[in-house]
Amino acid sequence: MVKKISMVQLAKGKDSDEDWKYWIETHAAQVKTLPGLRKYTINRVKSVTKGDVHFWGVAELWFDTEEDYDKAFSHLVPDEFGTLVTDPRLSVWVEEKVIV
Known about the structure:
By secondary structure, the chain is an alpha+beta fold. The protein has helices at 16-31, 66-73, 81-84; strands spanning 2-8, 39-44, 57-63, 90-94. The longest helix is centred in the N-terminal third of the chain and has 16 residues, at 16-31. The chain is globular and about 35 Å long.
């Protein structure tokens, strides 16, 4: 299984609480329907204890393969979420090892 992590930053002038609600209620509902999706989590940065954080939220998507991810997103119809965040989004493929 593979996991893709994407860090997103809100576009200027956007409302954190309003856009978080949109992410949960509208965008996530659409993403949940992707074929082959094994797990999907979203996280919003609420506070920072030290240093500068240049992202507002983190999405994690699990698929069996990177090819399954590509196939799933080839069918996704873009929604308003893309206008709420800035580009480029930082996305990475990671290998996860659960310890606890």
